[in-house]
Amino acid sequence: MKNITNLQSQARIQNRQLISYEIFPPKGDLTLETARSVAGDLAQLQPDFISVTFSAGGSGNSQATSEVVQLIQDEFNIPTMAHLTCYGATKDTIADHIADYRARGINNVLALHGDPVPGVKPKDFQHARDLIEILADEGFCVGAAAYPEGHVSCFSEDENIRHLADKQSAGANFFITQLFFDNEVFYRFWDKALNAGVSVPIEVGIMPFLSKSQITRMIFTCGASLPSPVVKLLAKYENDEISLRKAGIEYACQQLTDLSDHGVDGLHVYVMNHADVARETTEALRSHWGA
Asked: How much is the pTM?
């Protein structure tokens, strides 16, 4: 199965941008049958790759990540990336995951620190870059997280960029950003990253907001700010869930087409297992491109 870096190189030669999706299972609960159904719907849209989350927040079965990745690769022939977190992990547990990924033919891994878990302290890994180094040494194609507005625990823009550069130095082959709702925030971050010597691709991650509860949860979990247009949409459709969902997807489509026009390295949509979200955002992009 192709490495994502190879896909990115091919896309640059073809003068196009990658489109990818993230399966984002609530509480990490994603059965193989559910994954097969979701992946089948997504496969019809022919994304460049799909990523699969790793037991978000410490819940769920982390083994399901590798099973789902293998299923998508084997049954739908779509390059797929496994997430791997290291918060609370030991070198032995990470070695077990690496062995499992190798056995399943998984080449692409998104290395993350992971959310703190109550009662669990960091062990052999203090930062995501510690995991990146190991995965890079093992020959994986390694992705890492980028935070246009800074990680929730990072209050300095300069420190945020230093962390990004450190991840690149540790062996990250590319980045995928945390969600954001204001493209200007990303453009400022992107400029700072380039000026700091970050040269690997930075794909942008966009999550359409589908409900008020979802967006409230996201801004507290991810530290994303809400620009005025989003606040106004939330106020306008506060009591109309169907219209708010439609407005959220339309807003994401506007973000994506604007980002595409600015020549970003790739477009990664957090589809949250909703095939209609993937379809509408992808159709909007391809229509914008005239494809």
From this structure: 0.94
